[in-house]
Give the backbone structure.
Amino acid sequence: MALERFADVVERFTHGYGNGHTLEPRAETVTQWQEELERVVRRAENLQRMLTNPQEPKVGQTPRQEIYKKNKSRLYRYQSKRTHRTPLLFVPNLGISRPYIFDLMPGASFVEHMTREGFDFYMLDWGVFGPEDNDLSFEDCVTRILPRMTRKVLESSGAESLSVLGYCMGAPLSASFLAAYPETPVKNFINMAGPIDFSKIGLFGLWLDEKYFNVDRFVETIGAVPADMVKAGFKLLKPTMDLSTNLNLWWNLWNDKYVEGFNALNRWANEYVAFPGEFFRQWVGDFYQRNKLFRGEAVFGGRPARLSSISCPVFVVGAKEDYIAPPECVRALIDAVSSRDKDYVELPGGHISLIAGRGASLHCWPKVSSWLAPRS
Amino acid sequence: MADASTVNPLLDLWRKQFEESAAAWTRVVGQAPPPPTDPTAFWRPVLNQGLEQWARLFAQTPMTPDLATQWKQFMDQWIEAWSKALGQAMNTDAYAQMMGKYLDQWLVASAPMKKAAEQQIDQALQTLNMASRSQLTAVAKQIIELEERLERMEDTLGAILQRLDHKEPK
């Protein structure tokens, strides 16, 4: 049946114009063809340039200063006019990808937007881990790295409290830290596309289910999760992604601005980062498989981490087409915290387009800065 | 030349090992093989679904005289249809089970090979009087631990200084 339909499709595609559609060569059509011909020439020129003289895209251009480093992790402070007193600590994901996506290029940078809005912006770069970091666990990040990073932010800014913004895995990491250390002087907490209720996580949740995936055997056999394996996992989530990316590149190859953006984004999208073995074991076991943080069963450094102990103002941003952290799994933070001042917005886009690109600069960044400004 | 009293136990040991491994192989070979799985059984409905979705999307799209745009639409629909069909197929217990099984098989097969390769590389590096990867990793781990200890000392000193500051009369 399906094959017959496919034959119909081919028939329609081949003889579509013969069935009642009479096409007269209008002036408009001729102009369209001329334009398309010009685009084809531009495409060929740009393709030749991309293949023969590939330009290394300049990323992460907003001026910054390294405040502190601990093993592979770095804390950066970005230059700003600082019109808001409360500094903002940005906590991205650990492993998977590099954080320069948030400062991709001038005019398309979340960091640039926030510093322009007068926020004293600090970014935690977890770094690229090697086999020597295999013992680093999720708990170490919560009990050893994050407390020190917040202290360094407060020391460097001279402020008495700070705001924390977690993106993707950075959100459950920060939420775990805030829940385990409720005495931390945190003024505001923002969760951008960070999974909280892992029972609603989607495809990854199914694939990593205890019934099908033995995380202990996995970590004991391969140690750290290599970057190539992380890449394979994410490519598997959307197998047609590369095809549509390349098709859209060809379609827009005549447009120099598109090509510039593509080069920068493509560099980031293909620079995967390995997971330390113990971190992966705890991340998958305690979050994907047992959903400990949301259930209130998580304990870090002997301290119980209950989301209900978070009482500062909370802002949660979900993306409608996010298949890595679906909006319902992100939104769960709102009901779990005890804050009175809490808001949730669901914006168009996916996991990456929520934070990077033109859509983000129109929809997401202004929402975040306008929510945070009066509270800072 | 070795006398019979030292050679005989070695031969006995070798014969015993040979017999045991032969018996183990016989057991493995003698086991009934699992019923062959038909890989097309899972993917055939996915293929049909993809084609159906594509046909549906294609039928809804108006034709334009612009051939390039028409081609782009055609490709977009094709990708969209397959993305949906594959997404649905991968969001099933059967797929997760299949993937988990393949991963397990790969882990079981690769673990001894990985261990053997690492041992051989370590031995080769030792023969060449060079540091092995595991030795370098151990050194890097020690540096990380030292850094951590220094930081803890720094924290303690900071706390002591802070306490002293509070105690000093103003």
Q: What stands out?
A: The radius of gyration of chain B is 33 Å. The mean pLDDT of chain B is 80. The CA atoms of residues 93 and 99 of chain B lie 10 Å apart. The longest helix of chain B spans residues 93-127.
